[in-house]
Design a protein that fits this description.
- Helix 9 packs across helix 10, helix 10 packs across helix 25 and helix 23 runs antiparallel to helix 24.
- The protein starts with a helix and ends in a 10-residue tail after the last helix.
- The protein has 719 residues and is α/β, with parallel strands linked by helices.
- The C terminus is likely disordered.
- Helices cover 41% and strands 17% of the residues.
- The strands form four sheets. It has a seven-stranded mixed sheet with strand order 6-7-4-3-2-5-8. A seven-stranded parallel sheet has the order 12-13-11-14-15-10-16, with helices on both faces.
- The chain binds adenosine-5'-diphosphate and magnesium ion.
- Magnesium ion binds next to helix 13.
C-alpha cells in the first residue's frame, strides 16, 4: 500500500501534467501521499443558500444561486478589473476578478444559473464578491452537500489557473477511489485503544469528507496527535543521542570558589527557583555529557547570579568560563557587576568588546591562551577566531534572542582539544583535532511558553526561574494619550524631586530609521525645554553614538548625575539602575509586547514603587490595543508571551523558522497545546521502556519514524 502513495501526482486521474506542475510548485505536492496530507484549513456549510437581499455586511462566506447578466472591464491604477453583474430574484451584486480574467471570460457562461460561493464585501452601497468559487447549478445538484465542506489551502496562482477548491476536492475524491482507502496504520494498537484514537484510514477519510461533526473532530484529534507524537519522538531521540554522543567535560568538584562565594559573599538569599536551577545545572555539569541548557527567567528574576555561580563551578574544576551578551552596554554592565565578586575571590576577569583597545586585546588574547585569565565577558567579539582559550569549560550566552544557532556552534569549537590528541601532538594548531565542546548555558528573559520551547529548542534542556526575588514591588503600569503629556511631565517632576530617575524611551524601527531618529531628537529637545539646566540633567543614548560616548552617558545615569535618560531601545536589554523608578515609553503602540515587557523590566529594581507609562497617539489598531491592555493588566512574562504568540503567530518567535514547528500540517502549536503535551508524554514513555524501538509492538512506530525521516519536508530541524 505504501508504494502506491509514492506515485507521482501526475498519474492521478484528473490531474495531468499542467495541474501536476502547479501542485508541485505551489503546494509542494509531488506524490499521492503529499496530496492526502493536504489538510483543509477550515470547513464551511454548503447546505445553506442566501438570497442577495439577505446579505449582511459581516464579510462571511455565503452561497448564492443566480446568474451573470454581463461583464464589464473597469480600468484601475494598475491594469484593470473584470466585473460581472450577478442577479437573483431579490437583487443584484457584483462579482470581481483582479486576476485570471481571460480564463473567466472564456469559461463562464452568461445568463446560466450558477451557484457562487465566497466572501462578500460592502462597498459604496453595493455588495460584491471578489474571486467567487463558481459552479453551474446543474453540476452543483449532482454533488453531495455537506455542512462541513473542506476548504483547502490555495495560492493566487492556483486559483488563477482554475484549480479551485472544488477541483481540489474532486481530485481528493479520486485519490480515495484509486487507493481504495487502504491506508496503513501508523500508530501502535496499544496507543490507539488507550487514547481511543480512530484508525488512520478512518481519520484520513473523515478529515477530507467528514461524515459528521463528531467524526471530524475525532479525525482531527487523531491526526494532530500523530503529527505531534512523531515530532516529539524525534526531538527526544535527538536529545538522548546528543547526550550519549557528545562527551562533556566532567566538573566533578564544587570547590573553593563556589563554596567561599556561597558562604561568605552571596549578597542575598537565593530564591527557591534560583536554587533549583543551580541544582539542575550542577547535575548537568557533573554528568560527563555536554550541558546544553536554556535558562528562562523573567526580567529581574536573578539570572546573573546563577551565571556567576555556574562559572565558579567551572573554575573550581580548573576550567575557564566566558559570558557573552548582545550589546556593549550589557557586557560592560555584566563586567562591572561581576568585577567586585571576582576581586574578593581573587579571580582574573576581563571584558572584550568591539571597542577594546588593541593593546588590551593583545594582552587578553595572551592571557586567555596561557590560562592566566579565568573569566571573559564580552560581545560577539568573543566569537572571533583570534580568541583562543586554554581550556574553556563553560560558555554562557545572555539574552539568547540576539544570537543565532550558528553562533552557538562557534562557541562549541572553542572548547579544549580531546586529551588524547593534546598529548600526542604538541603543536595541535594545524591538526584537525576535535574539540570537546564547553558546557553551554543560554539565558533568556523572553519567556516562551513551555510547550513551544520544548518544540523549538528540543535539543536544549530547559530550566525556568519562575519566582522573583522577595520584596519586589509590582510596577504600576498605565496607558496615557499624548494629549495628557503635561500631567505626565508633572508626575516626572514630582518623582525627580523625590530623588528618583526616569527613562524615556523612543522606538527605533529599522525601516524608518531616519524618522525615528528625528522623533528621538525632537523629543529630546522638548524634554530639555521642560526640564531645563541647571535643575535637571539629561542623558541621551542611541544607536548612532560611538560606544565610548554611549558608555559615558550611561555611566552618568548609573552614578545618578543625570535624572533623565532619553534613549532608544538600546537600553532594552539588561540594564540595571535600581534608583530608576519610572519608565516612559513613547509611541508605545509601535513596540511589540516582548519589547514592552523588556523595557518595563528596567524599573522596579529598587525598593521604591515603580511606574511604567505607555504613551500613545489616539488612533490605535486592535492589536495595539490588545498589547497595551495586556501590559496594563499583567506583569507575568509568560502570560505576556502567550498573548504575543497569539497576536503574532509562532513564525516571529526566535528560532521557529529553523525548526519544524512551522511545517505542521494539521496541528496548531498554540491551540493544540494539550495534545502536544499528551503526545510528548507518550513519546517519552515509549522511549523510556524501549529506547531503540525494537519491541515488536513498537515496530509500527519505528517504520513510520524511518519513513518520515526520508520525507524531507517534515524533518528539517535545527542541525
Ligand atoms: P535578570 O534575570 O533580569 O538578569 P538580574 O540578574 O540582573 O536579573 O537581577 C536583578 C536584580 O535582582 C539584581 O539587582 C540582583 O542583584 C537582584 N537579585 C537577584 N537575585 C536576588 C535574590 N535572590 N534576592 C534579592 N535580590 C536578588
Ligand atoms: Mg540579565
Amino acid at each position: 500500500m505504501s508504494e502506491i502513495l509514492q506515485t507521482p501526482i501526475d498519474y492521478l486521474k484528473g490531474v495531468g501534467p499542467n495541474r501536476a506542475n502547479l501542485l508541485r510548485k505551489e503546494l509542494g505536492i509531488h506524490t499521492y501521499q503529499d496530496l492526502i496530507n493536504l489538510f483543509p484549513n477550515r470547513y464551511i456549510d454548503r447546505t445553506q443558500y442566501y438570497k442577495i437581499n439577505q446579505l449582511n455586511r459581516n464579510n462571511a462566506d455565503v452561497q448564492i444561486i443566480g446568474k451573470i447578466t454581463g461583464f464589464k472591464e473597469v480600468a484601475q491604477k494598475r491594469g484593470k478589473r473584470l466585473v460581472g453583474t450577478f442577479q437573483d430574484e431579490t437583487g443584484t451584486m457584483e462579482l470581481v476578478w483582479f486576476r485570471g480574467q481571460k480564463w473567466i471570460r472564456e469559461s463562464i457562461k452568461v445568463n446560466k444559473p450558477y451557484v457562487i460561493f465566497g466572501k462578500t464585501n460592502w462597498f459604496s452601497g453595493k455588495f460584491s464578491m471578489p474571486h467567487p468559487d463558481m459552479e453551474l447549478l446543474e453540476d452543483h445538484k449532482e454533488n453531495l452537500r455537506s455542512a462541513m465542506q473542506p476548504v483547502y489551502p490555495s495560492t493566487e496562482k492556483l486559483s488563477n489557473k482554475g484549480i479551485t477548491n472544488r477541483v481540489v476536492s474532486k481530485i481528493m475524491q479520486q485519490l480515495f477511489i484509486e487507493t481504495g482507502h487502504k491506508f496503513k496504520e501508523t500508530l501502535p494498537n496499544d496507543l490507539l485503544s488507550e487514547l481511543k484514537l480512530i484508525p488512520k484510514k478512518e481519520a484520513l477519510f473523515n478529515v477530507h469528507f467528514p461524515k459528521s461533526l463528531e467524526w471530524l473532530s475525532r479525525a482531527q484529534f487523531r491526526l494532530k496527535f500523530e503529527e505531534l507524537f512523531y515530532i516529539q519522538l524525534q526531538l527526544i531521540i535527538k536529545n538522548l543521542t546528543n547526550k550519549a554522543k557528545i562527551k562533556g567535560l566532567p566538573f566533578e568538584n564544587v570547590g573553593f570558589y563556589f563554596n567561599t562565594f556561597y558562604k561568605e559573599h552571596l549578597p542575598f538569599q537565593l530564591t527557591g527557583a534560583q536554587k533549583r536551577v543551580l541544582k539542575e545545572i550542577r547535575s548537568d555539569l557533573g554528568s560527563y555529557a555536554q550541558m546544553n541548557r536554556l535558562l528562562q527567567g523573567d526580567v529581574g528574576s536573578g539570572k546573573t547570579i546563577v551565571a556567576l555561580m555556574s562559572m565558579l563551578i567551572a573554575l573550581d574544576n580548573g576550567f575557564q568560563a566566558c559570558l557573552m551578551a548582545p550589546t556593549e552596554i550589557l557586557s560592560v554592565q555584566h563586567y562591572n557587576g561581576l568585577l567586585k565578586y571576582c576581586k574578593t575571590l581573587n579571580i582574573s576577569i576581563e571584558k572584550l568588546t568591539g571597542s577594546t583597545k588593541t593593546s588590551d586585546r593583545k594582552r587578553i588574547h595572551e592571557n586567555l591562551e596561557n590560562g592566566d585569565l579565568k573569566i571573559l565577558i564580552g560581545t560577539h567579539a568573543l566569537l572571533e577566531d583570534k580568541v583562543k582559550f586554554k581550556n574553556l569549560g563553560l560558555a554562557i550566552i545572555d539574552e539568547q534572542h540576539r544570537f543565532g544557532v550558528a553562533q552557538r556552534s562557534k562557541l562549541w569549537k572553542k572548547g579544549p582539544l580531546q586529551s588524547s590528541q593534546k598529548e600526542g601532538e604538541k603543536h595541535s594548531e594545524n591538526t584537525n583535532g576535535s574539540h570537546i565542546p564547553p558546557h553551554v548555558l543560554v539565558m533568556t528573559a523572553t519567556p516562551i511558553p513551555r510547550t513551544l520551547a520544548m518544540s523549538v529548542y528540543g535539543d536544549l534542556d530547559i530550566s525556568i526561574i519562575d519566582e522573583l526575588p522577595p520584596g519586589r514591588q509590582s510596577i504600576k503600569t498605565v496607558h496615557r494619550y499624548d494629549k495628557n503629556r503635561l500631567n505626565v511631565f508633572k508626575f516626572i517632576r514630582d518623582e525627580i524631586s523625590k530623588g528618583r530617575q526616569i527613562y524615556i524611551v523612543y522606538p527605533l524601527i529599522q525601516e524608518n530609521e531616519k524618522m525615528d531618529y528625528k522623533d528621538l531628537m525632537d523629543g529630546y529637545e522638548s524634554i530639555s525645554r521642560d526640564f531645563p539646566l541647571p535643575d535637571y540633567q539629561i542623558s541621551i543614548v542611541h544607536g548612532k553614538m560611538k560606544p565610548a560616548d554611549k558608555d559615558y552617558e550611561m555611566q552618568r545615569f548609573i552614578k545618578g548625575e543625570t535624572q533623565i535618560m532619553v534613549a532608544t531601545t538600546v537600553i532594552e536589554v539588561g540594564v540595571n539602575v535600581p534608583n530608576a523608578s519610572v519608565m516612559i515609553i513613547e509611541s508605545a503602540e509601535r513596540f511589540g509586547l516582548s519589547q514592552l515587557h523588556q523595557l518595563r523590566g528596567r524599573v522596579g529594581r529598587g525598593a521604591e514603587q515603580s511606574y511604567c507609562i505607555l504613551m500613545t497617539g489616539h488612533k490605535l489598531s486592535n492589536d495595539s490595543k490588545t498589547r497595551l491592555e495586556t501590559m496594563v493588566r499583567t506583569s507575568d512574562g509568560f502570560e505576556i508571551a502567550e498573548v504575543d504568540l497569539r497576536l503574532r503567530g509562532p513564525g516571529d518567535i526566535m528560532g521557529t523558522q529553523q525548526s519544524g514547528v512551522l511545517n505542521l500540517k494539521i496541528a496548531d502549536i498554540i491551540k493544540d497545546n494539550d495534545i502536544l503535551n499528551l503526545a510528548r508524554h507518550h513519546a517519552k514513555h515509549i522511549l523510556k521502556n524501549d529506547p531503540t524501538l525494537t519491541a515488536l509492538e513498537n515496530q509500527v512506530i519505528l517504520d513510520t519514524y524511518k519513513a518520515l525521516g526520508r520525507y524531507k519536508n517534515i524533518w528539517n530541524y535545527i542541525s
